[in-house]
């Protein structure tokens, strides 16, 4: 009996779901790190004010949003050039 391995096909819904899951996990990690850094800065440097916590969390969420945007739209990656279909045929 021979075992044949068939290449696994991944549907587009699964690819989008995986990207979305990665973005959500990235959001939780980066906003948590920003929150933690904000708490530490608030306690040590800014006499227990609330704005460093909000600022750190916002920076983390912004970084996660930028990474997610690059994941879903690869044209936004710096240095990426999109070649139109007509130019690609001529080369």
Automatic annotation (TrEMBL):
Keyword annotations: Membrane, Mitochondrion, Mitochondrion inner membrane, Transmembrane, Transmembrane helix
Primary localisation category: mitochondrion
Membrane topology classification: Single-pass membrane protein
Pfam families: DUF543
InterPro entries the UniProt entry points to: Mic10
Chain ranges passing through the membrane: 27-46
Coiled coil: none
Keyword Ligase: no
Function of the molecule: Component of the MICOS complex, a large protein complex of the mitochondrial inner membrane that plays crucial roles in the maintenance of crista junctions, inner membrane architecture, and formation of contact sites to the outer membrane.
Subunit structure: Component of the mitochondrial contact site and cristae organizing system (MICOS) complex.
Family: Belongs to the MICOS complex subunit Mic10 family.
Protein name, UniProt field: MICOS complex subunit MIC10
UniProt organism field: Sparassis crispa
Classification of source organism: Eukaryota, Fungi, Dikarya, Basidiomycota, Agaricomycotina
């Amino acid at each position: 009996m021979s075992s044949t391995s068939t290449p696994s096909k991944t549907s587009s819904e699964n690819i989008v779901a995986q990207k979305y899951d990665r973005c959500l996990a990235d959001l939780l990690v980066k906003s948590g790190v920003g929150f933690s850094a904000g708490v530490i800065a608030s306690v040590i440097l800014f006499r227990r004010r609330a704005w460093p916590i909000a600022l750190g969390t916002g920076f983390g969420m912004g970084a996660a949003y930028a990474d997610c945007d690059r994941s879903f739209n690869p044209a936004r990656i710096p240095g990426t050039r999109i070649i139109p279909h007509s130019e690609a045929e001529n080369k």
